[in-house]
Amino acid sequence: xxxxxxxxxxxxxxxxxxxxxxxxxxxxxxxxxxxxxxxxxxxxxxxxxxxxxxxxxxxxxxxxxxxxxxxxxxxxxxxxxxxxxxxxxxxxxxxxxxxxxxxxxxxxxxxxxxxxxxxxxxxxxxxxxxxxxxxxxxxxxxxxxxxxxxxxxxxxxxxxxxxxxxxxxxxxxxxxxxxxxxxxxxxxxxxxxxxxxxxxxxxxxxxxxxxxxxxxxxxxxxxxxxxxxxxxxxxxxxxxxxxxxxxxxxxxxxxxxxxxxxxxxxxxxxxxxxxxxxxxxxxxxxxxxxxxxxxxxxxxxxxxxxxxxxxxxxxxxxxxxxxxxxxxxxxxxxxxxxxxxxxxxxxxxxxxxxxxxxxxxxxxxxxxxxxxxxxxxxxxxxxxxxxxxxxxxxxxxxxxxxxxxxxxxxxxxxxxxxxxxxxxxxxxxxxxxxxxxxxxxxxxxxxxxxxxxxxxxxxxxxxxxxxxxxxxxxxxxxxxxxxxxxxxxxxxxxxxxxxxxxxxxxxxxxxxxxxxxxxxxxxxxxxxxxxxxxxx
Length: 536
Fold this sequence. Notes:
Elements: H1 5-11, H2 22-25, E1 49-51, E2 60-63, E3 66-69, H3 73-84, E4 89-92, E5 110-111, H4 116-120, H5 127-137, H6 144-163, E6 169-170, E7 185-187, H7 195-209, E8 213-215, E9 219-225, E10 231-238, E11 241-246, E12 249-252, H8 261-267, H9 283-290, E13 302-309, H10 321-328, E14 336-338, H11 355-364, E15 370-374, H12 376-385, H13 392-400, E16 404-407, H14 410-417, H15 421-437, E17 458-470, E18 481-483, E19 490-496, H16 515-534
Parallel strand pairs: 1-9, 2-11, 3-4, 3-12, 4-8, 12-19
Antiparallel strand pairs: 5-7, 6-7, 9-10, 10-11, 13-17, 14-15, 15-17, 16-17, 18-19
Helix pairs in contact: 3-7, 3-16, 5-6, 6-16, 10-12, 14-15
């Protein structure tokens, strides 16, 4: 099987999301990007910004101090902190729930440098050293001041969250490579113990006690600006009703566009299958760009996480995919990764600790998928670990769907997949020699993971780097002001927190590890404190 990026993009049938919004894409006006180029998908489209006084009257209008679009971790933290200062905040949320992605993410590596909680555990962080580690990890391609601001404030925000009852706990897993391992990290409460729900509920109560309100079922449509171009409100739709929310500033906490497959296809380097669970359709970014916000250099950055089985039409195989992915990509059992052409292309041991790195590498080099090679013992282990899910019938159905391939020999496996048999057989033999020698002179795979394959039959499962969401939509200042396309300027009255702006601290990839939730809470607090000090 041979596929190029061009014919893949042309012929792939994207599936599995069902949340893309063509109408949403059609509603964005063409704006200059941060590099001065016209935006690609939005040229000659209607604007998503209206000037105050030129609009048709709304069905209903709410007046307040600040409007916050989105009630995920960033939005609710920002709203509660504003309410603590006495601000009247209107929270505009498209779903009927609070917490957003914060209710479903793992958040297992929450950065909490020098919080009282970690200091109580005897872990005093060297923030300058951690900062330098981070810069090295992203090759210095990030906003250094925003990063410094985050690292210097994340600890106190954790203590603030604990004041609301947020029950952090120390990680117990072994240290991981990079960024000081787990030494400076803590974990969020388990997502199924109701602690997050209770904590976010208390924050909403603080908002309402200060005269604000939570408006559910409302999707943002347009930013409202005054004659000077300052953002002073938000127009939203609630069913067939149009509602205007007016204030002195608007905070975008709408979570990116991870559920909008059209935007992923347009803006990301390969058409990855979005798995965003909370309907983050990109309306915040589209409105901000229409208002003159800069498009960052790393627009299209993704949170690429664990690989999932997928077919050649990029449709994720249903049922038991996580089990198959985890067992077959385990490098401790000697797994070999090959490209769409049947050749190794990276060191598989990265998947021991951060699967996101391998996924991000595939995205960067236009690899729409990779194949994990396993022997019969791996399949037997899979059945033993999850017999209720992984049956012979289940595996047969995966073969029928073009996700799993089998061959008695390496040559037969190559023929089943569509690779050149001689090429793959040579690659398989070369890998066996690396295992025998205990050394990988090309990709430098750790010797402990150079485990030889057992007897056949052999299997190949097609896997895709799959994004949990996007995180490079908008650039912000250390005060969380949205940067304008004109260098040195900001979009007056507009702020962005959480996923919308986390790409500011990253390169062209994002390694996950729960950092987005910590950034969301911290950036929300920082935006609130800036607005309270300078706007209200």
